[in-house]
């Protein structure tokens, strides 16, 4: 049995969610490759705004499923990042310049709205460029597809004819899902006014499905002209759920995931896809992120965490790790989750080489790196780095390295480049998030007695005492009934709050060895003096 055979056998049995998703595609084409010769994955993007953390997560998770499928099958795959850039501009975003100018173009396709940043041909072209730069910077393998280009080139014309042929069936699917007043004006087809260029939300009458001709009232101009117009080659776009279904049908999409908030859209679009004679793609609905209060993240509220923020305070791999874990479970997304995600990523990465293949396939880092893990481990945790920076105050990268070199002989930015990057993240995290909240409290009487004992025992140790020897001393003091700690964790909490100004902290033996015995004794003296 070859290595690839062993891997495929293990992948077929793995319960890791990317493999479970990939097996849906194996079942979909159990008799071999589809007629088009490949499996098509799709992710969608609305270019009315800039790419964000949700865009990253969707492309990342889809890529993980695609990679898992490669382990199970030799059938080629493609990943399309589809931009719905023919959508009409519904409202002016609050975070862009030239808002008065944008107001004048409300309702027009995003590719016909001037770029408020005055850099590209249109607002959509600007945001599409940002999307491509965004995806390229993370090394995603994908093909960019513009809705406008496909519509105008006639690539969707046959699918649009099919929409007109199946017009009543689509109406029968959609109308029961709409409010009564919306039913009166709803149309699956959104013709584009030949005079104003606006994407119209008006009822249409199908005149000739084969020629693509519809009749409608152009409500965007005075007098409301009655117009007969072809919807082919850019003469119209489709309503969102119908557009999604037409895309699945027209492109032959085999897999697309979506957020839980789109469950109804997936249901209706799937029905419409079948009505067109197509087969809806496989996929699943992932849960949405919540803020630290457990409330849904809203762009308007600004209560979320941006991609730029995460990557300021933690590496990309930590975000990928957080995105991988339990995608169907609602998770909080705020500053406080970053350090744990960083350390857990490194824990799983350190475990990977020692695991059996079945365990490796269930290890998040396997899917983050597609089984090709970088070499190297960290000599200290990110949490320990944060605590070190916390007691150092306004430290530089060089000062942090000077402490690390005492703790790890020979350590340098050259020998530990990933650690060097983490130092930068730790300094930024401390500066912006930790420092404003740090507040060391005075020790209680029994805690002060325990601290004096710790100081005395540290004074008797050599400067190069091991972290394990120091940890044993810390443990012994916490267990000593003379100091009155009900539980060992009460002693550790006292150390964190009086020495570090935090409620949680590192393994104290490791911290004292890293920070140095003399420096740690100074911390104790400051706490006792308070």
Describe the fold and architecture.
There is one protein chain. With 530 residues, the chain is mainly alpha-helical. The chain has four domains: 225 residues, Rossmann fold (3-Layer(aba) Sandwich); 75 residues, no CATH class; 54 residues; 85 residues, Arc Repressor Mutant, subunit A, CATH 1.10.10. The chain is 49% helix and 9% strand. It contains 24 helices and twelve strands. The strands form five sheets. The chain has a three-stranded parallel beta sheet. Strands 5-6-7 form a three-stranded antiparallel beta sheet, with no helix packed on it. Strands 4-8 form a two-stranded antiparallel sheet. Helix 11 links the parallel strand 9 and strand 10. It is elongated, with a radius of gyration of 29 Å. The mean pLDDT is 93.
Spatial sequence of strands, sheet with the most strands = 1-2-3
- Backbone CA Rg: 29 Å
Globally, the shape reads elongated
Largest sheet: 3 strands, parallel
Mean pLDDT: 93
Q: How big a fraction of the residues is strand?
A: 5-15%
CATH fold node name of the largest domain? Rossmann fold
CATH architecture of the largest domain: 3-Layer(aba) Sandwich
How helix-rich are the residues, as a percent range? Answer: 40-55%
The CATH superfamily of the largest domain is HUPs
Structural class estimated from helices and strands: mainly alpha
